Amino acid sequence: MDPHTQIDHAICYGIENKMKALPEVILRTAGVRAVERGHPWIYKDAVARAPDLDHGEVVLVGDDKKKVGVGLYDSESPLAVRVWSPDPHVAPSRLLQGRLDECVRIRAEIFDKQTNAFRVAHGEGDRVPGIVIDRYDDVCVVKPDGRAAEALVRDHVEVLVRALAPLGMKTLVLRLREQEAITLYGPPAAKAIRVMEHGVPFVVDVLSGQKTGAFLDQRENRRRVGDLVREKGGRGVTVLNLFSYAGGFSIHAARAGAVTTSVDVAAAAHKTAMDSFRVADLDPKGHAFATADAFAFLDRAATEKKSWDIVISDPPSFAPNAKSLPRAISAYRKLHAACVRVLAKGGIFCAASCSSHVDATAFASTLDDQALGRSDLRLRESFGPPPDHPTLAAWPEGRYLKFFVMR
Ligand code: SAH
Asked: CA 275, 281, 286: angle at the middle one, nearest 5?
């Protein structure tokens, strides 16, 4: 059945209280318990019985006796259902407007005028499963995860436009995986959008940049790096920013007086980074941008006996699934050893991880004395996700971001 029709069915049945017509996905006991605690994901493995369903269908979930929630089904994903509500009488499409209004209201509490680039809707963590929306000044970018969320977004563009209007949104862009950006509403977005993060300007490429254009989750940590440079005396402090993407950490560091070296395999990212340096009143010529594999760069730097006062490491996820966890841990240990080899005496090492399968305790283990090959560093600060990336208590998978400061 067409997902749209199914959703409308759900609304009608909700009102008429004839929920029986909705397909029922019967879960194993552990799945029922998890949904009751507020976990929004039902893996295929947790499903005991389900009728033949298409993606995007509204389904009731529970056991044979009781239904514990309503969600959207995805026939292709290992995540069979994303749960929207414990109330089986209300369809996700009905909840969308209210949930997004709440997201926008919360962001008004978090941010002042110094920041106009932030995550407006953080999927599961904001109780809009699979729907991520980032705001870059007057452009919003929606990135649905999975076909069910994509269908919901495409069928309810007017709901998104209404909810995002208080942010002054003029253009709504849809980003799907690596495909081109699609304009859903308003005039096409400019290739380079100028935004501000804690008063520091930078440019974002929402049309072809990674994710929605920027990694907004590191905003608070980028600011912290600026402060760390100031703590070390500001002018002339040397900073090595590994996996630098569009240079966010480097810009905050450079504004505080640092001389930065940004390393990324993606040459296009350096172009955006240099543009950002210019809008932030910094001359990129005074800084280094290396297009290189970070591991190879570190090996070479160690051979050449180079060192930096602050080293930042923010690699892409090393653990795409639980099975790859041991390999990821060993990769982090190797990377961290290589990072501290080029850390100047008395230096600061900032290590980040965005692998959701590596929790904070496991990540700390990749920074132990044996991993680093030295016993003089302390774990002085540890940060998790920022407030515009909320998580649910029952959903540890959402707390993927770790940022540890060793000195
Ligand atoms: N620190 C950035 C975000 C980093 S995302 C910020 O604050 O915005 C991870 C980056 O690592 C991507 O830009 C990707 O191009 C880069 N990357 C992936 N593998 C790499 C490798 N082996 N060496 C260097 N860079 C790499």
From this structure: 75
Strand partners, 27: 47
Report the alpha-carbon angle 225-231-237, nearest 5. Answer: 75
Cβ burial 164-182 (10 Å sphere, 16+ → b, else e): beebebebbbbbeeeeebe
Tell how strand 171-175 and strand 181-185 pair up: antiparallel
Q: Using alpha carbons only, what angle is made at residue 343 by residues 341 and 349, rounded to the nearest 5 degrees?
A: 110
**CB proximity list for 275: less than 8 A, separation 6 or greater:** 192, 203
Of all atoms in ligand 1, which is nearest to the CA of residue 243? 11
Q: Return the ligand 1 atom nearest residue 269 CA.
A: 13
Summary mean pLDDT of the chain:
93
Q: Residue 282: count other Cβ atoms within 10 Å of its Cβ.
A: 18
Q: Looking at 232-367, which runs of residues are DSSP E strands?
A: 238-242, 259-264, 288-291, 308-313, 343-353
Taking only Cα atoms into account, the Rg of the chain, rounded to an integer number of angstroms, comes to 23
The model carries a pTM of 0.93
pLDDT of 399 higher than 90: yes
> Would you state the pLDDT for residue 17?
46
* Closest ligand 1 atom number to CA of residue 248: 7
Spatial distance between the Cα atoms of 260 and 248, rounded to a whole number of angstroms: 11
Q: Please name the residue whose Cα sits nearest to atom 1 of ligand 1.
A: 244
Would the pLDDT of 13 be above 50? no
3-state secondary structure (DSSP) of residue 276: helix
Q: Which domains does the chain have, with CATH numbers?
A: 3-90 (2.30.130.10), 94-205 (3.30.750.80), 216-406 (3.40.50.150)
Residues near 111 by beta carbon (within 8 Å), at least 6 away in sequence:
118, 388
Distance CA 88, CA 213 (A): 36
Pocket lining for ligand 1, CB < 6 angstroms: 210, 215, 218, 243-246, 248-249, 263-266, 269, 293-294, 314-316
Return the structure tokens found at 31.
């799945």
> Residue written as tokens 């044996």?
370
How many whole angstroms from 292 Cα to the centroid of ligand 1? 10
pLDDT, tens digit, for every residue of 310-357?
Answer: 999 999 999 888 899 999 999 999 999 999 999 999 999 999 999 999
User: Does residue 4 have a pLDDT over 60?
Assistant: no
Measured from the Cβ of residue 30, the count of other Cβ atoms closer than 10 Å reads: 10
Q: Which residue puts its alpha carbon closest to atom 11 of ligand 1?
A: 243
